[in-house]
From TrEMBL:
The chain crosses the membrane at residues 7-29, 290-314. The keyword Transferase applies. Pfam families: HATPase_c (PF02518), His_kinase (PF06580). The keyword Transport does not apply. This is Putative sensor histidine-kinase response regulator. InterPro entries: Bact_2-comp_sensor_kinase, HAMP_dom, HATPase_C_sf, HATPase_dom, Sig_transdc_His_kin_internal. One of its GO terms (cellular component) is membrane. It comes from termite gut metagenome. GO terms for molecular function: phosphorelay sensor kinase activity.
């Protein structure tokens, strides 16, 4: 397939994918904005209903205040509260009831409220609705009014009573809601102002035809349910489960609802305005045709641009291809320039020239590398000859010792040969802790032969960690550092103790001596060297081990860090009677590919 064709196909697929992604993103964004708009509309509608219901309740509260602020009415209420009333002239009682009736039976009350009732425990009832069919009971049925206890508890504050059947009606008992206030004083009674539930429907207007409204009072008591709202208990349960979110989603009768809340702190009224999620989804679907149209326009314009641009871009590339096809090893030194119409393709032509120059340099370097590889192989063979020579010399010494009846010389030569064989084995760079302890035992034997009773060792390493893999000659290097530096200026008895165990997911080995410890400032110096080695390992991991050089603590740390990384804990510190080196890392008994089956 031609490059131009590939370019067109590639960018066509890319444009289609981008078009789909943009269309989906735009559709998702538009739907989210539509839903957010609906949520805002519901919030506004809920607050609007809160204001409207407040406008219904506030005059009811105002009316109770007006009645209680009228001194004549209040004196009449006090007179009726006196018990027994048989001690009072009936004319006075009649005047008191008439005064109360005139105070509440005015046009404002008649037109604005369904009923205003004053009653007391003594049986007096004065109502603004007396003619049929709105006649009022002359006796209060207290057992039908359980909310009186709540009114008494509020000590004169108004109590809003949810929708209920009118308890005062004689011929007609419509559903009403009330504002009740207990009059403070002994047997003073109560004032109840009623509105019909139908008046709520008349007062509430919603901006959307498909919206449902529910009004609750006193933490869940239904006052009004309008529209197609059903299952008010389910709405209230969903509100309680969702918390104080202004808008939430609920499942009511198997249908999804988007619900906004509004609250009136003055009257403990909660308004829920809901809309069916199906209706919201249907409205958001109108975004789909616009999204498809935008995606089609974008793809068409982009494809036309790709066709034109591909023809212009591929012409100089074809010229460059022709130059490259005529490039050979015998004409690498010749400069071949191609006239390019823009800086990018000009840079490509220059890059091709640079590639030719680097190719020439690479050919020279490859020849040099071949020579170096041959030299390295020769050095490796030479290095393998030297250990064999040492083995032969040790065998000769051992035979001479055996000939002279000195078995100790034979044992020393055997230990030294075993250590030499272990340390010069270049095929394996890692060993288990068990193999390291075996190698350390040979080293201890040689040291004991040298220092005799002046040195002693103790090895207490749990068998559980013997299978852990570590770099070779780590433990011996730490012990050797303790001997060489811990007892450099001391003639006291030398004791080295090696302990090891597993703690959780980590293995731990400590090497402790009774020497003179690290010199002042030495710990800081070694710490700085370890930090430098760690930084160099992070930057030059492949060659840092060779560059550090030596077989001291820094080299030991570097080799451990290369194997265990940041899980390594390499700690040095002084004790009361010497120094201690702690090695620890994450437990891993899987091993390395180059660990031998035995110590040799």
């Amino acid at each position: 397939m031609r490059f131009q064709t590939k370019m067109i196909v590639t960018y066509t697929v890319f444009i289609l994918l981008v078009g789909v992604v943009i269309a989906l993103a735009y559709y998702g964004y538009s739907v989210d904005r539509y839903v957010e708009t609906e949520e805002k509309n519901l919030e506004v509608a809920a607050q609007q209903v809160v204001n409207q219901i407040n406008e219904l309740i506030k005059p009811m509260e105002t009316r109770t205040r007006y009645i209680l602020s009228d001194s004549e009415i209040l004196d009449s209420i006090r007179l009726l509260s006196v018990a027994p009333q048989s001690d009072i002239d009936e004319a006075y009682l009649y005047d008191a009831r008439d005064t109360i009736l005139r105070g509440i039976n005015i046009d404002y009350v008649m037109n604005d409220f369904y009923r205003v009732v004053l009653f007391n425990p003594g049986g007096d009832v004065v109502s603004s609705r007396t003619p049929p069919p709105l006649a009022t009971r002359s006796v209060a049925e207290f057992e039908e009014m359980p909310w009186l206890a709540e009114a008494d508890a509020t000590k004169g504050k108004p109590v809003l009573i949810s929708a209920h059947e009118d308890t005062w009606g004689v011929q007609s008992r419509p559903r009403v809601f009330s504002l009740l206030r207990a009059i403070q004083g002994s047997n003073m009674g109560y004032i109840e102002v009623q509105r019909t539930v139908e008046s709520v429907a008349d007062a509430i207007t919603l901006p959307g035809e498909n919206m449902e409204v529910l009004i609750f009072v006193n933490d869940g008591e239904l006052l009004y349910a309008g529209g197609t709202a059903a299952q008010p208990a389910a709405y209230w349960a969903a509100l309680a489960a969702d918390g104080a979110a202004p808008v939430f989603r609920a499942e009511v009768e198997g249908a999804g609802k988007l619900v906004a809340t509004g609250r009136s702190a003055a009257y403990d009224v909660t308004v829920l305005v809901a809309e069916s999620m199906a209706h919201v989804q249907a409205g958001s679907n109108s975004v789909a045709p616009i999204t498809v149209g935008i995606a089609i326009i974008f793809c068409v314009i982009s494809l036309v641009f790709v066709l034109v641009a591909s023809r212009l871009l591929t012409k100089p590339l074809r010229q460059l291809r022709e130059v490259m096809e005529h490039t050979r090893l015998d004409n690498l030194a010749q400069e071949r320039r191609v006239a390019m119409p823009n800086d990018e393709l000009e840079a490509l032509s220059l890059s091709y020239q640079n590639v030719l120059g680097r190719l020439r340099e690479s050919i020279v370097k490859e020849k040099q590398a071949s020579l170096l590889q041959v030299q390295a192989q020769f050095d490796l063979l030479q290095a393998q000859v030297n250990p064999h020579f040492l083995y032969n010399v040790l065998n000769v010494i051992a035979q001479r010792g055996l000939k002279n009846g000195d078995e100790e010389i034979c044992d020393l030569c055997a230990s030294l040969a075993s250590m030499l064989r272990y340390s010069t084995n270049t095929k394996q760079r890692y060993a288990t802790i068990a193999q390291e302890l075996e190698y350390l035992g040979q080293y201890f034997y040689l040291l004991k032969s040298r220092y005799e009773h002046k040195i002693s060792f103790a090895v207490e390493v749990d068998a559980e960690i013997h299978g852990q893999v570590i770099p070779k000659i780590v433990l011996q290097q730490v012990v050797e550092n303790s001997i060489n530096h811990g007892f450099a200026n001391s003639t006291d008895h030398m004791h080295v103790r090696i302990t090891g165990a597993r703690e959780g997911e980590r293995w731990i080995i400590t090497v402790r001596d009774n020497g003179q410890g690290f010199a002042p400032g030495k710990l800081e110096e070694i710490g700085a060297q370890l930090a430098e080695a760690k930084a160099r390992i992070a930057q030059e991991r492949s060659a840092v081990e060779l560059e550090i050089g030596g077989m001291g603590l820094v080299n030991t740390y570097a080799r451990l860090y290369l194997l265990f990384g940041d899980s390594l804990d390499f700690t040095l510190h002084n004790c009361e009677d010497g120094a201690e080196v702690l090695l620890s890392a994450t437990w891993n008994e899987e091993g390395m590919d180059d660990v031998p089956d035995h110590g040799g």
